[in-house]
Design brief:
There is one protein chain. The protein has a single domain, classed as Up-down Bundle (de novo design (two linked rop proteins)). It is built from 5 helices and no strands. Helix 2 runs antiparallel to helix 5 and helix 3 runs antiparallel to helix 4. The longest helix is centred in the middle third of the chain and has 27 residues.
């Protein structure tokens, strides 16, 4: 089986783990949120890795960087959803801090990856 370049990226691996953690987290959200916050946070967290994968298939550094920027934007959207989940008391402060730290690390890595791609 072929291993694609995006699968080797530590940033993508962290995005993959985050997506799994988010999917497990939202299982405890109220059922009436299934088409609201639950759906939104699942989509935004999935999009982080999706954009990294899609961008890895682009030819130019500028195109690759664009998809990393979209991935970063999805991470920021996910942070907003985590804040909302905490405000609505769907998650506690400890869970909020844990996810916030994961997302802070991921956004820093995305910024570093974007800068490295554009240097080439």
């Amino acid at each position: 089986m072929h291993i694609y370049s995006f699968e080797k990226l530590e940033t993508w691996q962290k995005a993959r783990t985050l997506r799994k953690d988010i999917y497990l987290l939202v299982k405890k959200f109220p059922k009436d949120e299934i088409f609201g916050l639950t759906s939104q946070i699942k989509r935004s967290s999935s999009s982080i890795g999706d954009c990294l994968a899609e961008g890895s298939a682009r030819i130019t550094p500028k195109d690759k960087a664009h998809f990393i920027t979209m991935s970063y934007s999805s991470a920021i959207e996910t942070i907003n959803h985590i804040i909302g989940a905490c405000d609505l008391e769907y998650i506690n402060e400890e869970e909020y801090i844990s996810f916030r730290l994961k997302l802070d690390e991921l956004t820093n890595k995305l910024n570093a990856l974007r800068k490295a791609i554009l240097k080439n």
